[in-house]
Design brief:
By secondary structure, the chain is an alpha+beta fold. The protein has seven helices and four strands, in the order αααααααββββ. The chain has a four-stranded antiparallel β-sheet with strand order 1-2-3-4, with helices on one face. Helix 3 packs across helix 4. The radius of gyration is 20 Å and the shape is globular. The N and C termini lie far apart (74 Å).
C-alpha cells in the first residue's frame, strides 16, 4: 500500500511539473520570477537566483529583466569558475545592451578573463574598450566613481583615477587598468 502511494505521488509530481513548465508564458511572469531572483540573492541562495535568471533569459526574451539576468549569468559562471561561459555571457551582454549601466563592469570581467587565459591581444582590446568607455563616461556623466548592484546582489565599484581604473566586487579587487 505504501509503495502504491509513492508511485501515485510520483505521478502527481511529474504531472504537476509538466503542467507548470508547459503553461503559457505571460509578461507578468517575468516580473514575478525576477522578484524571486532578487529575494533568493538577498538570502544567499545564489543557485536559485541563477536558475531564475536563466529562466527569464530563455523564456522571456526582450523582457526588461534581460540585461540584469544576462549580467548575472556571467557573474555566476565567473564565480564557478567557468570562464568560457562567463566570457560568452559578458560579451553577449555588451553586444545586446551597449548602453547599459553595467557595461563598464562587463568589460572589466572580459579583461580579467582574458588576463587569466593569457590572451594578450584580447587583454589589450578590452583595456582599450574600458579606457574609451571611461572617457565617454566622464564626458557625459562627469563621474569619477561608478556603482552597480547586480541581480545576484553583488555590489560593484569602479574608481577612476587620472592614470588608472580599479574595479571591485563586494570590496575585493576584480581588476586594475593602468594607462
Amino acid at each position: 500500500m505504501i509503495f502504491l502511494k509513492q508511485i501515485i505521488s510520483g505521478f502527481v509530481i511529474i504531472f504537476m511539473g509538466l503542467f507548470f513548465f508547459s503553461a503559457p508564458v505571460f509578461a507578468g511572469d517575468a516580473r514575478l520570477i525576477y522578484s524571486q531572483v532578487e529575494r533568493n540573492a538577498r538570502q544567499g541562495n545564489v543557485d536559485f537566483a541563477f536558475m531564475g535568471c536563466k529562466n527569464i533569459i530563455e523564456n522571456y526574451p526582450k523582457s526588461k529583466y534581460d540585461a540584469a539576468c544576462m549580467f548575472a549569468l556571467g557573474e555566476y559562471y565567473y564565480d564557478l569558475p567557468n570562464y568560457e561561459k562567463a566570457y560568452s555571457f559578458f560579451q553577449q551582454y555588451i553586444d545586446q545592451f551597449p548602453e547599459s549601466e553595467a557595461k563598464f563592469f562587463a568589460l572589466a570581467y572580459l579583461q580579467k578573463i582574458s588576463s587569466l587565459k593569457g590572451d594578450k591581444s584580447l587583454i589589450e582590446e578590452h583595456k582599450t574598450a574600458i579606457i574609451k568607455h571611461r572617457q565617454l563616461s566622464l564626458v557625459f556623466r562627469k563621474k569619477e566613481k561608478q556603482i552597480y548592484r547586480s541581480a545576484l546582489n553583488n555590489i560593484y565599484h569602479a574608481y577612476i583615477y587620472i592614470n588608472k581604473i580599479e574595479f571591485y566586487v563586494e570590496g575585493q579587487i576584480l581588476t586594475k587598468i593602468s594607462y
